[in-house]
Amino acid sequence: MTEPRPDLLTVHVPLDAGRAYDIQIGRGLIDTAGAAVAALGGRRAAIVTDATVGALYAARLRTSLERAGLQAGVVTVAPGEASKSYAGYAEVCDGLLALKVERGDLVVALGGGVVGDLAGFAAATLRRGVRFVQVPTSLLAQVDSSVGGKTGINAPLGKNLIGAFHQPRLVLADTAALDTLSEREMRAGYAEVAKYGLIADSGFFDWCEANWRGIFAGGPEREQAVASCCRAKAAVVTRDEREDGERALLNLGHTFGHALERLTGYDSARLVHGEGVAIGMALAFRFSARLGLCAGQDAGRVANHLALADLPTRLQAVPGGCGDVEALLDAMTQDKKVRDGALTFILARGIGQSFIAPGVDRAEVAAFLRDELAADRAV
């Protein structure tokens, strides 16, 4: 029996119908994952990872699983957003079937948000539903995408348009894995950290302004930030699991951001998800200020903090450009929050005061984007 670790932080997600699960947060969890995964039952644990993460951690995780008595195999995909596709989904499903994964077994997603979404969707549909475990290795995945059960792939017409709600049975956030992230990926993940303060917790945004360097440096602030974000997301998911209401708030910045990702062809060399979210959040606050919903100084404070963390905040920051106003609007119409063809945005009345704004006038959005592009060209 594994002794409890007092250094771990645990966040509980209290879903009903026996679907509650824990998020464990701390250093070294990849090497001790076997006992926790084996406790869930099943004979096999198939690891889904990408080539980059797999080279670092797959052997260690597999060893831990096998020491706990599980049969373990590995399915590896190419790194990057391009794997979150129809072809990538088929590749993972075929790999899991080749490993003879049964309904009583487990799929273990080892990687960032792309791997988590892809492996989770494969688990949701393989044999009409196989249990899965998230072992997120990026900051973005640890604070956001590994929690809450959203799984899916991208379509040519937009991001995350094909998917399912399929909750993990356990999340193991090994914060030591963040030591190997590039600075760019850490910054991209930090955009999602700041997001939680901007949505509904101005005090947490204050804390981020004072402590963001500690998160990057790997101090105790890192675990504290991950736990704070997971608690916030767990609370929202528990109240609104399938995004029928307030869970849409978690998409602050994503209507703009997803459109930018589509227009860059999901090319991570040009734009990664967190960078799109950072630009999107800055745009959302500037749009809110333009509409008279929040103070211009709040919009400025948001952009200044993101820029201090070396995150992009303007459309001109997208390498190779992001198209014209009509291209941006067209990409936004494929957003999952669109209802009856009308755009829905997450806007703000101030820091920590975001709200869902359905039916935003397309002409208002077009005029805003036109001015943003003109301002960028003038710089």
UniProtKB/TrEMBL annotation:
Matching entries from SUPFAM superfamilies are given as: Dehydroquinate synthase-like (SSF56796)
Q: Name one GO molecular function term.
A: metal ion binding
**Keyword Metal-binding listed:** yes
Per the database record, which ranges form the 3-dehydroquinate synthase N-terminal domain?
A: 75-187
One Pfam family in the UniProt entry: DHQS_C
Q: Which UniProt keywords apply?
A: Amino-acid biosynthesis, Aromatic amino acid biosynthesis, Cobalt, Cytoplasm, Lyase, Metal-binding, NAD, Nucleotide-binding, Zinc
Q: How is the cofactor bound?
A: Binds 1 divalent metal cation per subunit. Can use either Co(2+) or Zn(2+).
Q: What does this protein do?
A: Catalyzes the conversion of 3-deoxy-D-arabino-heptulosonate 7-phosphate (DAHP) to dehydroquinate (DHQ).
Q: Gene for this protein?
A: aroB
Q: Tell me, which GO biological process terms does this entry list?
A: amino acid biosynthetic process; aromatic amino acid family biosynthetic process; chorismate biosynthetic process
Residues annotated as binding Zn(2+) are E192, H254, H273
**EC annotation from Swiss-Prot or TrEMBL:** 4.2.3.4
Species per Swiss-Prot/TrEMBL record: Methylobacterium radiotolerans (strain ATCC 27329 / DSM 1819 / JCM 2831 / NBRC 15690 / NCIMB 10815 / 0-1)
The reactions it catalyses are: 7-phospho-2-dehydro-3-deoxy-D-arabino-heptonate = 3-dehydroquinate + phosphate
Residues covered by the 3-dehydroquinate synthase C-terminal domain = 189-338
Output this protein's name. 3-dehydroquinate synthase
Q: Which residues bind NAD(+)?
A: G113, V114, V115, G116, D117, T137, S138, K150, K159
Q: Which family does it belong to?
A: Belongs to the sugar phosphate cyclases superfamily. Dehydroquinate synthase family.
